[in-house]
Design goal:
alpha/beta, globular, TIM Barrel, about 400 residues, 16 strands, eight-stranded mixed sheet, eight-stranded parallel sheet, Urease, subunit C, domain 1, binds zinc ion
Length: about 400
């Protein structure tokens, strides 16, 4: 079944089929057609161009005059499955309580883990499914979801099964990540490295069937670069590529161990020096930054501009989680990337679309307006300049969204 959208005010994000990601200066441009047409067949984009070049077609027409069309955003880093929100910690944070004080009064990751253990798979699925539906209405057209709040083998596998249910139920592409080492529970007797060994021994081989990627929180005071290496190696052995958390709280070695192993991505990077940037330049690892998290924690932002200036393919993701980034709104990320990280609207757009798709190995399917790609699209009001979106912050600009060539609503 074909659909022809005509007289589209602006069609943003057009790329040739052989573009796998955009690096450095290439990120400064967003190819656009004014007064465009877009022809869809079933779930795919089959043709597009200027209205004056519209070929004859019997396909039913939809007027695009009121709209701009963009490719959907891709969110390459979320912790979407959790038991309960943590607004009770919110006021403690405002009052300036430290992470340790919040943890002592029953907050933090360890608290999330305790709650996960009390919830069954179906209730975890239901709440995460609702969150995912809301994100789709905000224009997220593909998503990565991590485990990591189980903190013991049984509960991590439980979260992975919930993520697999989400993958079946949602119509957008879902990539599943096993966050094998997020924090060490108080009840575990032994060090961080012992915990990593224990988790890997007790979760594989099942985890390999339930996940696409493996992850670790490689941070000062948590898991070391050597623990990250153990996780990366275990993933490799079982066919899971690695995407790791690194350099959020300091120069943890995460960025360097990621680059040395050419893993898929290293995410956070609030602390990133020249040596670490050079490591990334020698690798194929995607640098992923998470502006919603820096905003919410009032912590420093990753040096997104330096990453682009180093010729790297910057990616932006939400880090949606109940503690440090309780929002999966990528329009907000777009605004923060411009206002706080000082990158251009075009650079941030490319970081949220084609590069984010590549960081989930979805670049052949999504991330741009390209013949043959999935018709996962955002329809916004007819603005003339792409800068309008991050400029007019705090809004959901998606008036309609399309998944697989069909309009979807909550
Ligand atoms: Zn995270």
């Amino acid at each position: 079944m074909q659909k022809l959208i005509v007289n589209i005010n602006r069609l943003f994000g057009i790329l040739p089929p052989d573009t796998s990601s955009l690096k450095g200066d290439e990120m400064s441009k967003v190819n656009t057609i004014s007064n465009a047409y877009l022809l869809l067949e079933n779930d795919r984009i089959v043709d597009f161009g200027k209205m004056e070049d519209l070929p004859e077609s019997n396909a039913p027409r939809i007027s695009g005059k009121q709209f701009n069309i963009l490719p959907s955003f891709i969110d390459s880093h979320t912790h979407l499955v959790f038991a309960e929100t943590r607004e009770n910690e919110f006021e403690m944070k405002i009052e300036g309580k430290t992470y340790a004080e919040i943890a002592a009064s029953g907050g933090g990751i360890l608290n999330s883990a305790k709650k996960i253990a009390q919830y069954d798979e179906y209730s975890l699925f239901e709440s995460a499914y609702k969150r995912a539906q809301d994100l789709i209405q905000l224009g997220t057209g593909a998503i990565e979801i991590k485990s990591g709040y189980g903190l013991d083998p049984e509960n991590e596998l439980k979260i992975l099964r919930v993520i697999n249910r989400l993958k079946e139920a949602l119509h957008i592409p879902v990539k599943r990540t096993f966050l094998a080492a997020h924090a060490k529970p108080k009840s575990f007797e032994g060090g961080y490295s012992d915990y990593v060994k224990h988790m890997l021994e007790k979760t594989f081989p099942q985890a390999a069937q339930l996940a696409d990627y493996i992850d670790v929180f490689c941070e000062n005071g948590f898991f070391t670069a050597s623990d990250a290496q153990t996780i990366i190696d275990a993933g490799k052995k079982h066919g899971l590529k690695a995407k790791i958390h690194g350099n959020q709280l300091g120069h943890s070695g995460g960025a360097l161990v990621a680059a040395e192993n050419n893993i898929l991505s290293v995410d956070h990077l609030e602390f990133l020096n020249q040596n670490e940037i050079m490591g990334l330049q020698r690798s194929s690892t995607f640098p992923v930054v998470l502006p919603n998290c820096s905003f919410y924690l009032k912590m420093q932002y990753a040096p997104a501009k330096a990453i682009i200036n180093a010729g790297l393919p910057l990616v932006i993701a939400s880090d949606f989680n109940p503690g440090s980034a309780p929002s999966g709104n990528l329009w907000t990320c777009w605004s923060l990337a411009c206002t706080q990280m000082r990158i251009t609207p075009e650079q941030a757009f490319n970081a949220l679309t084609i590069n984010a798709a590549a960081a989930l190995e979805l670049e052949k399917e999504m991330g741009s307006i390209t013949k043959g790609k999935k018709a996962n699209l955002i329809f916004t009001a007819a603005q003339d300049n792409i800068s309008y979106y991050p400029y007019s912050f705090g809004e959901n600009h998606a008036e309609k969204v399309m998944v697989d060539g069909e309009f979807v609503s909550n």
